[in-house]
Amino acid sequence: MKVDLFDFELPPERIALRPAVPRDAARMLVLDGDSTSDRIVRDLPLCLRAGDMLVFNDTRVIPAQLDGRRGDAAIGATLHKREGPRRWRAFVRNGRRLCGGDAITFGGGVVAHALDRAEDGSWALEFAGDEPVELLLGRAGRMPLPPYIAARRTPDERDADDYQTMFANEPGAVAAPTAALHFTPELMTALAKAGVEQATLTLHVGAGTFLPVKGDDTVEHRMHAEWGRIDPATAERLNAVRDRGGRIVAVGTTSLRLLESAASEDGRIQPFEGDTAIFITPGYRFRGVDGLMTNFHLPRSTLFMLVSALMGLDRMQAAYAHAIANEYRFYSYGDSSLLLP
């Protein structure tokens, strides 16, 4: 499909620079079949059925943005995928100044060696020393806010909490599964009372989620791979929900993409551990999910293509026009939508 079909005009003032307080006070646009309604996230128990299951991503964002030097050259690195115990693939600013074997010195005495450059321009970095890389990143790294926020304000201490979900448990993401930022313990209690179940999986979100689609046609785009896991017990619970007539509602496109990667042709969720580079565009047949809760996405992005595949392109263009006209807040710290085809 032509990429320009997924374009729309977004006024810059609609981009949220801080999350709603409290988190579950964010607005929520509900598309349920043919109906459209304006709600808030706290209304979610009223929008689902007893027996439905929400599926959350329990990845934890690491301080993956690093500033350093190679000799007299300033080098910036954004880690996006772990390739080994001490090896990470990274997008590098000023990467033209690097050669294989070069040492980059970051803050806190942290040193990494540039190993090889991939076709997409990313570098493999190997961190020196014996300390766990997580400790090194804690000294030298900072929270990798999305570029459309970081370009408009300086990241600060609030972001260390704001950009982490209440489910964050497994370190490894370089971007938050932002749909789950809206959840609070109080909302989870209300959902449980309403008979809505919950499950977690892990998908370590990579910085590739922010990369633009550069070609004119979707077939030209290559997704970056991300590592995920669904354990056998979770797969069994998910299948039991479907067997009882409940719906599987993914919280976030990351959860959805892993569920679809793990689903067999007959819709059964299989245990999964490994990389996925699934790219979902209109015409895709969904097998693993029955709905999605997600924030509002960038024009021409792979994520807007995904929600258009779920609900229909015309439906989503109309929904986004409604959201813009009614001053919904967009992107990672913005408002939410509940999509039930």
TrEMBL record:
Keyword tags: Cytoplasm, Glycosyltransferase, Isomerase, Queuosine biosynthesis, S-adenosyl-L-methionine, Transferase
Biological processes annotated in GO: tRNA queuosine(34) biosynthetic process
The keyword Cytoplasm belongs to this UniProt entry's keyword annotation: yes
GO cellular-component term (any): cytoplasm
Transmembrane segments: none
Database matches in Gene3D superfamilies: QueA-like
Pfam families xref list: Queuosine_synth
EC assignment: 2.4.99.17
Coiled-coil annotated residue ranges, if any: none
Major subcellular location class: cytoplasm
Localisation per UniProt entry: Cytoplasm
Entry-linked InterPro entries: QueA, QueA_dom1, QueA_dom2, QueA_sf
GO MF term (any one): S-adenosylmethionine:tRNA ribosyltransferase-isomerase activity
Biochemical pathway: tRNA modification; tRNA-queuosine biosynthesis
Reaction(s) this enzyme catalyzes, per UniProt: 7-aminomethyl-7-carbaguanosine(34) in tRNA + S-adenosyl-L-methionine = epoxyqueuosine(34) in tRNA + adenine + L-methionine + 2 H(+)
Family: Belongs to the QueA family.
Role, per record: Transfers and isomerizes the ribose moiety from AdoMet to the 7-aminomethyl group of 7-deazaguanine (preQ1-tRNA) to give epoxyqueuosine (oQ-tRNA).
Quaternary organization: Monomer.
Protein name: S-adenosylmethionine:tRNA ribosyltransferase-isomerase
Gene, per the UniProt record: queA
